[in-house]
Specification:
Strand order of the largest sheet: 7-6-5-8-9
Oligomer: single chain
Number of domains: 2
Order of helices and strands: HEHEHEHEHEHEEHEHHEHH
CATH class of the largest domain: Alpha Beta
Largest sheet: 5 strands, parallel
Distance between the termini: 14 Å
Number of strands: 9
CATH topology of the largest domain: Rossmann fold
Helix content: 25-40%
Radius of gyration: 19 Å
Structural class: alpha/beta
CATH architecture of the largest domain: 3-Layer(aba) Sandwich
Shape: globular
CATH superfamily of the largest domain: Aspartate/ornithine carbamoyltransferase
Length: about 300
């Protein structure tokens, strides 16, 4: 089995092979053991400097990457665009080149523009990890989601996963579809027609607008929030109507009469995508996703740093 990734950067799931994904999962297995020990740190990246560049608001992803870096003993530089020279007119490339002059090895970047991470990877020497670029991709979230499914069900191949909600504006949806399909899962997207992109069937997914039918089909339901901050027009009459048609509550789940695993990439809008009695139920693996996020991001950082051959 390979001990190194086939790519130099993590720009998206599209560039990864199934072997790359398995290597990340197996490496995460080892790191999950580490983060459950009394002493949770290893010296794996003690000689590595990581810069977290977040040009868009983030709480869970930024904290998860930062914790992963600390668990690996990396040196960390945190950068927030709200207090940066970008507000004074400096370009993205100039900002990053100034940071690289401080001898940074890996850049973890979130940016509102699709393709920003790809652009940077072509102009600088540091390794790039895409922590979300606009409505394009969010590879580490897709990896931790698939890893969580594997942990819960023991496999991914043949598992039926329904991704429910705002598919059109979600980078999580695209990365999840690409990742799950590469690992042999069956994928369905479900939501209002106005929030499902045209031609999405070309990615090899089923499309369903009836939530009850989608839940009856699937083994796993990954509930996405409505991305109001990315919507330039109104795609459905009201939140109340959306909840009636696409919100998952315990009564609905119980009526399906099968044990569906419920996931959510966060942040949860309780009472919209899922009710509290679903989010906090035994069927939910939402907090497992959070824990697994640290292990997966430790694995990504370790392998992108080129430590896999050791």
């Amino acid at each position: 089995m390979a001990t190194q990734l086939s790519v130099n950067h993590l720009l998206g799931i599209k560039e990864l092979t199934p072997g790359d994904i398995e290597l990340i999962f197996n490496t995460a297995d080892n790191f999950k053991d580490v983060i459950n020990r009394p002493i949770k740190k290893v010296p794996s990246l003690r000689d590595t400097t990581v810069s977290n560049l977040f040009f868009e608001n983030s709480t869970r992803t930024r904290l998860s990457f930062e914790l992963a870096e600390k668990r690996l003993s990396a040196d960390i530089i945190n950068f927030s665009s709200s207090s940066s020279s970008l507000n004074k007119g400096e370009s993205l490339l100039d900002t990053v080149k100034n940071i690289l002059a401080m001898k940074v090895d890996i850049i973890v970047m979130r940016h509102p523009k699709p393709g920003a991470a790809v652009f940077l990877s072509k102009h600088i020497d540091a390794k790039i990890i895409n922590a979300g670029d606009g409505t394009h991709e969010h590879p580490s979230q897709a990896l931790l989601d698939a890893y969580s499914i594997r942990e819960k069900l023991g496999r991914i191949k043949g598992v039926k996963v329904a991704i429910v909600g705002d598919i059109m504006h979600s980078r999580v949806a695209l990365s999840n579809i690409l990742c799950l399909k590469k690992l042999g899962a069956e994928v369905m997207v479900c939501g209002p027609k106005t929030l499902i992109p045209k031609h999405i069937e070309s990615l090899g997914v089923k499309v369903e607008t009836d939530l009850r039918k989608a839940l009856g089909w699937c083994d796993v339901a990954n509930m996405l929030r409505i991305q109001l901050e990315r919507q330039d027009q109104q795609y459905f009459p009201s939140i109340r109507e959306y909840v009636m048609l696409y919100g998952v509550n315990k009564k609905l789940l119980d009526s399906i009469n099968k044990n569906i695993v419920v996931m959510h990439p966060g942040p949860i809008n309780r009472g919209v995508e899922v009710t509290s009695d679903v989010a906090d139920s035994k069927q939910s693996i939402i907090l497992d996703q959070v824990e697994n996020g640290v292990a997966i991001r430790m694995a990504i950082l370790y392998l992108i740093a080129g430590k896999g051959e050791n």
